[in-house]
UniProtKB/TrEMBL annotation:
EC class: oxidoreductase
UniProt gene name: tsdA
InterPro entries assigned to the protein according to its UniProt record, in alphabetical order: Cyt_c-like_dom (IPR009056), Cyt_c-like_dom_sf (IPR036909), Cytochrome_c-type_DH (IPR051459)
SUPFAM superfamilies recorded: Cytochrome c (SSF46626)
Domain Cytochrome c: 49-138
Keyword terms, alphabetized: Heme, Iron, Metal-binding, Oxidoreductase
Short name of one Pfam family: Cytochrome_CBB3
Protein name: Thiosulfate dehydrogenase
Tagged with keyword Iron: yes
Domain of life of the organism encoding this protein: Bacteria
EC number(s) recorded for this UniProt protein: 1.8.2.2
Length: 179
């Protein structure tokens, strides 16, 4: 009898399906990344990071999968000379220098999705730093100023000019209105 009471108390404590556990507030905070960062920079959080700081974040959190300096790793290449991406380009070769039209998307994506196995572990400062490092490695910024909510949206991405026009509409991104 005592055992049955104890068991039903356990079942109640674990909820209807008896699997999983409640998320802590900290876990909810890590996953609840809103709002998205837009191309204009709207939604970028406070904080900042330099290329040097980013080199450390990169070595510790990214190099194992993306290679020592952004290429040559087991997964996607992040650094490349700006060569035009075509239909034949292997998606693993879509790098920041030739494929990403907005620097702010890079922030949003890395904050949300990387490191691949443990997304959400980077602080906003660390995300700014690793974005600065990757932009520097791609030859897009000179590293003289830290990346933050003011400087990052100002970065001009070479991929914006490289992306081909939509053949039917002759517009770059017919489905959205560019800022
Ligand atoms: C465990 C391996 C792993 C680690 C560690 C990792 N990544 Fe990734 N990364 C991936 C994989 C796999 C993809 C492709 C994901 C997809 O296509 O959905 C990817 C994709 C990316 C992309 C998009 C590439 C593109 O242009 O298509 C960026 C940018 C990126 N990672 C940055 C980072 C950064 C910055 C870090 C460190 C903070 C990091 N990654 C750590 C595995 C990893």
């Amino acid at each position: 009898m005592g055992l049955a009471v104890a068991l039903s108390a356990l079942v109640l404590a674990q909820g209807r399906y008896q699997i999983g556990q409640p998320l802590s507030e900290e876990e909810v905070r890590r996953w609840n990344v809103r709002p998205s960062v837009l191309a204009t920079g709207a939604g970028l959080p406070p904080g900042e990071g330099t290329v040097d700081q980013g080199a450390q974040v990169y070595a510790a959190q990214c190099a194992a999968c993306h290679g020592g300096s952004g290429e040559g790793g087991a997964f996607n290449r992040l650094v490349a000379e700006p060569f035009p991406v075509t239909k034949e380009t292997n998606p693993r070769d879509f790098a920041i220098g030739n494929y990403w039209p907005y620097p702010t998307t890079l922030f949003d994506y890395i904050r949300r999705a990387m490191p691949f196995a443990t997304p959400g572990i980077l602080s906003d400062d660390e995300v700014y730093a690793v974005v600065a490092y990757l932009l520097y490695q791609n030859g897009i910024i000179d590293g003289s100023q830290p990346m933050n909510a003011a400087t990052l949206p100002e970065v001009e991405m070479p991929a914006r000019a490289l992306l081909q026009l939509d053949p039917t509409t002759q517009k770059k991104f017919p489905w959205i209105t560019l800022p």
